[in-house]
Structures are given as C-alpha cells and as structure tokens.
C-alpha cells in the first residue's frame, strides 16, 4: 500500500470514528427525548380520529423507532460508500443496519434496506441506477468500506474493517484505532507477539479479505449482502422465488435479510405499502403475518439469533417445522385428523407407515394429479346423479328449477365447476326453501310411524337403543345415503341413548323409503337393513307410505347435492380420498403398503389431502362471487382457512420438503400477496421424499422464479475443491458448484482421514489430537465451533462420553446434542447425529464412521457425506471403522493424516 493510500486510510478512519460518535449521540438524544415525553414523541400524526387499529400500528412504529435508535447507539454504521453521480459529483453515505437518524455535521446516514443502501452491496467500479425520491439517479461506486463497530473504554473503533478504494484494496484493517495510532493496542500486545511468532504480518492493515473463524453456534452476522443476494432480497413482496445455490452461498442469510426488509414498513415501496395496507388485519398485522419452515428444530434454533439481529421477533409460532404446521392445520383448522380417540369418522395419522410405493413417494405429483382429477369427477358425478333424480321428479320440484339445473350442469360438465358453483350460489334462494318444506313433510310422515310403534309398545325406544348399541355397522355400506339428510352438516353432539336411537331410526326409515321408491335393494350390512329386520313387518311403515316418503326423500337427495356444493368441494376431500384409495388399491395402482384401516393415513397421504383441501379452498376464495360475500355465514368455512394464511411464507432447505409439502406451504400465502420465498440445493436433499428436480418445484409453485447464487462464503479453497470433487464422484449436479469470493485469503487445509479406527474410544483419541491441532492453529483464545457427526442417534451419547474422558484432561468438554433438539452451549465440542445438521455451520467437522454410513444408507450416503462435509468452514476430518468406501478411493490423494 502506498504512503498516499495509507494517509487517505487514516483520514477516512478518523472521519469514521468521529461519525460513529455523532450517530450514537444523535440516536441517544432521540432516546432521551422519548424517555422524557413518552415513546409517542416519534409520532407526528394525529391519532385521535384514526381508530384503535391505527393507534396500535403507530405505537408499533414508535416501539420500532426506539429499538432502532437503541441499536444505533450500539452499532452506528456498517458501511461507508462513495459514489459518483451522472453529473460527476461525489457522494458519501454512511449506511446503518436498520435505522437512520439525522446528523448535525452534514454527513448522510441511510439504512441498508433503503434504496441508497444498495450501494453497500456493490463492488468498486459497478454502476447502478437507483430510484431516489421518484427520480432515476445513476451512480458509479468509487469506494466501499465495511465496518464492525465496537465501543470499548469510552471510544469507538471498528475491527476487521474491509476497504476497497478506486486504486487500492481490498484491504482488511484490524483496528481503525490502531491504524490511527500506528500500532496495536497494549491489550493486544500478546496477540501481536503470537502473530509475529507465527510469521503473519504484524501490520494492522492486511492485503485482501480474511476468513473469520466461526466462534458461535448461530448463523453468522452478515449485515451486507453481495450484489446478487442484494438484488434478490429486494425483489417485490408479491414474488414467488426459489434461490438455488451450493452450500454456504448465503441462501439462508439472504432469506432472513429479505424478511427483515419486507417487514419494515419504512422500507417498502409505495406499491408494497398499498398492498400491505389493503390486507392489514388488526389481529395479525403485517409484522406478524409470516411463517418460515425449516426441516429440523436445530436449524430453527440456529437461525433465531439472525432474526433478532434483524429486529424481527421470531417465536415458535413463526419458525416451524412442517410437521408442526401440518398437525395444527389438519387437526385444529380443517378437522381432517381426529382430535380425540373417542371421535370417529376422521383420519388418524400413522406417521411411520408407508402406504405408497417408493416410486410414488419419490415422484408424487402424478399420483396427486390423479387424486385431484378423481375428486373433481366425484363432485361432478354427485351433481350429475342429482340432476338425473330431479329430471325424473320434476313434478315434485318444478320444471323451471330443473331447466336451470340442466343449464348449470352443462357448464360443470364443460369442466368449469367454479362457474357452476357461482350459478348455484345464485339459485340457493330457491333451492333451500324447497328443500326445507319437503323435509318437513317427510319428517312428519316418518315420525308418524315412530309414534305408531310407541303406541304399541312404550319400551320401543329403549329396546331400539339397546339393539343399536349391539350393532356392528359398516360405514361404507351406509355411505350411499350421504345426501339422504343433512345431519352430516351438523356438528356431532353428545346425545342420550334415546336421542341416538330416534336419530338412527329416522335415518334408517328414510334410507329404506328412498330405496323402496328407487326399487333398489338395501345393502345387507347397512344399519338400515339391520333395523328393518329388527323392526319386522308389523312395525315398518306400509309399502305405500314408504314409497311416498321415498319419493320426497329422493327429491331432497337430488336437491341437496346442489345446495352448499362449493363447500362440499372443500369438505369432501377426505371422503374423495378414501374412495380414491379404495379403488386404486383394487386396481393395484400407486399403493402397496399394508393399510391397516380405511381411516389410517401416512404422512404423504395427509399432505395430499391437505393440499387438495387448501388448493380447492383458494380457488374458491379467488372467485368474485365468494370474495364479494366472504363474510356471509355460508362462506364461514373459507374464513377459517383464510385466517390461517400469511402475508409471507419462507422455506429454508426447500429440497428436503416434498413437492406436495412445498405446494401446501405456497398455499398458505395470502391470495393478495402470494409471497413465497424458498431456498435450497438439489444436491443437498437428504430425504427420500424431498423435491428432486426443478420441474417438481415448478409443479409445486407454478410461477416460481428461480435465482441461482454461486459465491461460496463458508468454505476454504481446499474444502470447496474437495466438496466439488465429492459432488463429481457421487454423481451430483455439477452445475451447482460454487467459487470463493475474489480476494479472500482462505486456503485452508486438506481434509484429514483415519482408517481402521476401531471403536469410539480409539476414534476419540484421534479426534482429540485433531481438536488440539485446530485449537492451536486457530489460536483465538477459545475453541472455535467443532462438530462431531455420527451415523445414528444412539451413537451420540457414547461418542460424547468417549470424547469427554479425554477432553476433561485439557479442560474441554463434549456435549451430546441428542434428538436434534439442542445446539449445545459455549465452546463445547458438539456431537450430532448427521440427519439433524442441515443448514448448520462449524469451523471444524469430524464425520465418524463414513464406511458404516455407506453401508447403512447406500442411496443417501453420498448426500449425507456432501451435506456433512460442507458444514465445515476450514477443518474436515473423516474416520472409517475399516477402510475408505470404494466410491471415495479416488479422493485418497486429497486426504492427510494430520494437520500439524
Ligand atoms: N455476502 C456475504 N459475504 C460474506 N459472507 C457471507 C455472505 N453471505 C453469506 N455469508 C456467510 O456464508 C455462510 C453461509 O451462509 P448461509 O448459511 O446463509 O448459506 P446457505 O447457502 O444457506 O448454506 P447451506 O446450503 O449449507 O444451508 C455464513 O457464515 C454467512 O454469514
């Protein structure tokens, strides 16, 4: 670096530290003002007439402001940029992480999420056009300085500041204070001595960018994104995006930053603001209307801190696994699963069962499409049968009504069920009263028969109740009569045994009457047949009576199919599924598992039922005739679902979710926003059911826009090269390889290998030697993050125990992170089962028993190895109980036995 550059650097450092002080002081002034006059000091709007919701929103804004100012007192700025505008004028901006404050000294401070904040992501020499205050402004970036501010002993400093100027850099300045003083601080003299002894440059200014050792078990702070990530995170709120990229390219980082930006009303574009205001709901304001799905609980814990840096409160209600969300929806909201063991009729989830063929589980989209088509056909069939009945009974229901229904059915048969529902919605004012009067008449006639029997025998109802209790009824045999009465539309209530007996009597007589009228036989195993036989001729209504009741019931049956038809398209998904599966099993299609009970569902089947329910409900919600009448009681069933939708849905490690699960998640976005943001990597899929191809992703979210990112920020050059080779020999998608950022000095070391390792005690000896090496090489006064990965949950504790025997002697500890529930604390060596470590990052990773893994999971071995190996930033160790698996033999030359 030239003397001139050095002097310039000092001048800028001095300006920076003065500005840090000024920003922190200005922010403190605002905080003090708020304290004396109440937090509402920030609000200049008159709230008297704005209602409760508006004042709630404003107090939320003032709370955000307070947090923002407080953050500025801790971290005044994260960047300083200089840019040349189209008129040749130089502009200097300081950029803060989230908030801004006006400065008295003329310096300009913008937040990173603002339009000007984009300059922070550019490299020097890049040109950009920005829309500032409605005007297009063109800039060329001349200089970019990134800070890590620290306040120590009453003075501001910035550590590991990176600087890139027009004709110098990038450089890393260890400490701006030290640069200004020309030496490292006294307190750091020891570090300086160590650095000198290791032969590293003693100067506080280093050429290039340096790797930052991973010290904590949380997603690393990355306040400024690169240009490509930055572009993605600012895309409009109502986008559907899938970021694809190799491990460690900052996909999760980008996702969290995007959420932070899109939740901050001050940073939304005018279009986004008007969209958010249109859909804002006092019960679930925009700031809380989001959910993020992660495949494991561990990843959930790993990213939580990154959310709080974004000032986004992220409770368990916001970051979830799909299993949690699915359970809530299927059980509580949609009633697909039974809620208690006493309840009957609904499905029971058997999560560990597999009913579908493995090939269907791996590519379930065709199966789902077949189910969808079946459901539509079944709904159409119900209406067609209704029309056939009504055409014959036009003298009961009226010829005009039948003609209208004939026209509506022509539309439905043309494939447009939604248009048919719209027309039927308009016809309900005729259908419902007619149905009601027919039912009253037929109920009256059925009741007469009951009273007759009671007159003959006062114990009739008690005897009937006792008989009903002894009945073994076949639900399927009674399913035929589902439109006989509307009891199914009412919630099941607690009944006395007499009430139940009378209800079963009524239902059975109606069924018998309808089948008599239709001249059809009664299924032998049905309740109706059993009751008929029990009643005997003397207590059954006369044949003529049955015929006339039957005619009315048949007409009601026909009419009922046209009432609430749209609701049935949603509520009858489970019934369609049961029938679909019954027929497919008979036809030897799709299924081959043992289905113990017609009400049992495996996890993928539940996803399918859920998806079909959600998609049908959304299709209905999008219909103008529904949207117009959304508050009407007849559409209350949709409101329950609407209340469960989110302004934004985010998915991390999307490829571990099946296409059905991704489609369900996308179906949880508000219809107005459709804001869906997912990230993943097909090479890192470690579930059999996960999404395998881009086509599957497109099937799940039809308008998804895929954005690749390829700069690898996690791994050293050596490990990145090793990972790329691993991908090659394991047959991964080679287009998904990444490269390290320019100017990064992070060569690293080759992975190390132990063969013929023996039992855990022997492995532990080798691991502890390597851990000590890492500690020595890293030399940061504490242990960096270290993970030991084992092949199965039951190995976690024994491995941790074996390590602890040895680590104790050097004052270190290993912790068993069992069941993927805990991330461990402090600088312990963490032992995980490999299936839980998706998305995590460590400075060093040791993968124990990879030859056993190859035998245990021949299909997924390569993927587990790839995911495990790419968790490591710098140090990777592999151990084999016997020898390196044959698939990896060609990598032997890349492996060493130790690092020192
Ligand atoms: N623009 C950037 N500059 C420097 N470091 C970055 C940048 N973006 C991300 N990182 C760092 O890269 C590392 C990996 O980030 P992240 O976990 O978000 O990647 P990922 O693509 O989600 O990885 P994986 O596919 O393994 O889940 C983190 O330490 C993060 O801080």
UniProtKB/TrEMBL annotation:
Could you give a single Gene Ontology term from the biological process aspect? Answer: recombinational repair
Report residue spans for region: Disordered.
478-499
Keyword Hydrolase listed: yes
Span of domain UvrD-like helicase ATP-binding? 224-716
Q: Which residues bind ATP?
A: 245-252
Signal peptide span per the entry? none
Regions of biased composition (Acidic residues) lie at 478-492
This protein's source sits in the domain of life called: Bacteria
Per UniProt, which keywords does this protein have? Answer: ATP-binding, Helicase, Hydrolase, Nucleotide-binding
- What InterPro entries does the record point to? DNA_helicase_UvrD/REP, P-loop_NTPase, UvrD-like_ATP-bd, UvrD-like_helicase_C
Q: Which GO terms describe its molecular function?
A: 3'-5' DNA helicase activity; ATP binding; DNA binding; hydrolase activity
Q: Does the record carry GTP-binding as a key word?
A: no
The record, for Pfam families, names: UvrD_C_2
Protein name per its UniProtKB record: DNA 3'-5' helicase II
The taxonomy runs: Bacteria, Pseudomonadati, Pseudomonadota, Gammaproteobacteria, Chromatiales
């Amino acid at each position: 670096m030239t003397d001139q550059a050095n002097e310039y650097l000092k001048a800028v450092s001095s300006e920076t530290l003065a500005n840090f002080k000024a920003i922190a002081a200005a922010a403190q002034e605002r905080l003090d003002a708020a304290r004396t006059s109440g937090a509402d000091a920030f609000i200049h709007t008159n709230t008297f007439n704005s209602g409760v919701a508006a004042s709630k929103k404003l107090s939320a804004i003032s709370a955000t402001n307070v947090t923002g100012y407080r953050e500025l007192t801790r971290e005044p700025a994260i960047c300083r940029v200089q840019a040349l505008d189209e008129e040749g004028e130089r502009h200097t901006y300081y950029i803060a992480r989230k908030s801004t404050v006006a400065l008295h000294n003329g310096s300009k401070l913008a937040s990173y999420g603002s339009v000007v904040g984009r300059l922070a992501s550019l490299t020097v020499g890049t040109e950009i056009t920005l829309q500032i205050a409605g005007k297009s402004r063109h800039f060329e970036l001349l200089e970019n300085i990134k800070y890590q501010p620290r306040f120590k002993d009453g003075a501001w400093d910035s550590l590991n500041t990176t600087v890139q100027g027009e004709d110098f850099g990038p450089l890393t300045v260890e400490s701006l204070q030290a640069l200004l003083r020309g030496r490292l601080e006294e307190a750091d003299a020891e570090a300086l001595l160590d650095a000198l002894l290791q032969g590293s440059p003693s100067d506080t200014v280093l050429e290039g960018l340096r790797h930052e050792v991973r010290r904590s078990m949380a997603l690393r702070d990355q306040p400024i994104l690169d240009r490509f990530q930055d572009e993605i995170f600012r895309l409009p709120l109502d986008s559907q995006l899938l970021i694809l990229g190799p491990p460690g390219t900052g996909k999760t980082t980008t996702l969290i930053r995007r959420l932070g930006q899109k939740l901050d009303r001050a940073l939304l574009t005018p279009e986004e603001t008007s969209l958010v205001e249109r859909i804002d709901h006092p019960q679930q304001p925009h700031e809380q209307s989001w959910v993020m799905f992660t495949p494991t609980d561990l990843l959930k814990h790993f990213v939580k801190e990154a959310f709080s840096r974004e000032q986004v409160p992220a409770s368990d209600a916001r970051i979830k696994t799909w299993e949690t969300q699915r359970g809530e929806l299927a059980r509580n909201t949609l009633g697909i699963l039974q809620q208690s063991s006493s309840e009957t009729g609904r499905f029971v989830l058997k999560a560990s069962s597999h009913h579908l063929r493995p090939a269907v589980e791996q590519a379930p989209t065709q199966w789902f499409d077949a189910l969808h088509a079946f459901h539509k056909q079944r709904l159409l069939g119900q209406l067609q049968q209704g029309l056939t009945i009504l055409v014959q009974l036009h003298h009961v229901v009226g010829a005009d009504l039948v003609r209208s229904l004939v026209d509506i059915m022509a539309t439905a048969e043309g494939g447009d069920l939604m248009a048919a529902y719209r027309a039927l919605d308009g016809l309900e004012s005729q259908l419902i009263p007619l149905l009601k009067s027919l039912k009253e008449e037929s109920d009256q006639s059925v009741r007469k028969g009951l009273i007759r029997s009671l007159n003959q025998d006062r114990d009739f109802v008690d005897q009937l109740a006792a008989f009903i209790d002894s009945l073994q009824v076949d639900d399927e045999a009674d399913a035929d009569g589902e439109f006989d009465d509307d009891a199914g539309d009412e919630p099941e209530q607690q009944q006395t045994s007499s009430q139940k007996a009378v209800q079963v009597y009524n239902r059975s007589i109606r069924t018998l009457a309808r089948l008599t009228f239709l001249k059809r036989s009664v299924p032998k195993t049905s309740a109706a047949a059993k009751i008929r036989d029990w009643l005997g001729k003397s207590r059954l209504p006369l044949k003529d009576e049955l015929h006339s009741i039957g005619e009315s019931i048949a007409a009601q049956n026909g009419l009922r199919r046209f009432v609430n038809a749209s609701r049935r398209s949603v509520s009858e998904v489970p019934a369609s599924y049961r029938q679909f599966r019954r027929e497919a099993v008979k036809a030897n299609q799709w299924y081959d598992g043992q289905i113990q009970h017609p009400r049992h569902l495996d996890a993928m089947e539940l996803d399918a039922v859920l998806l079909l329910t959600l998609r049908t409900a959304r299709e209905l919600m999008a219909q103008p005739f529904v949207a117009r009448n959304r508050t009407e009681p007849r559409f209350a069933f949709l409101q329950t679902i609407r209340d469960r939708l989110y302004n934004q849905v985010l998915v991390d490690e999307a490829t571990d979710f099946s296409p059905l699960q991704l489609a369900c998640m996308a179906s949880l976005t508000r219809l107005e926003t459709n804001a869906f943001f997912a990230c993943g990597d097909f090479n890192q899929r470690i579930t059999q059911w996960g999404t395998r191809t881009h086509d599957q992703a497109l099937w799940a979210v039809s308008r998804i826009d895929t954005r690749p990112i390829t700069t690898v920020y996690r791994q050293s050059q050596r490990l990145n090269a090793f990972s790329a080779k691993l991908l090659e020999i394991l047959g991964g998608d080679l287009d998904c390889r990444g490269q390290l950022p320019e100017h990064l000095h992070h060569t690293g070391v080759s992975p190390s290998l132990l063969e013929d390792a023996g039992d855990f005690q022997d492995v532990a000896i080798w691991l502890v030697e390597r851990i000590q090496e890492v500690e020595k090489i890293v030399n940061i006064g504490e242990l960096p993050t270290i993970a030991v990965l084992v092949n199965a949950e039951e190995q976690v504790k024994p491995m941790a125990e074996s390590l602890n025997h040895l680590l104790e002697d050097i004052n270190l500890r290993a912790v068993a992170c069992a069941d993927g529930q805990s991330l461990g604390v402090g600088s312990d060596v963490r032992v995980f089962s490999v299936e839980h470590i998706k998305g995590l990052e460590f400075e060093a990773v040791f993968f124990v028993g990879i030859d056993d893994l190859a035998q245990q999971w021949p299909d997924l071995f390569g993927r587990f190895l790839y995911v495990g190996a790419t968790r490591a930033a710098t140090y990777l160790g592999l151990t084999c109980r016997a020898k390196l698996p044959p698939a990896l033999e060609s990598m032997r030359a890349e492996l060493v036995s130790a690092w020192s």
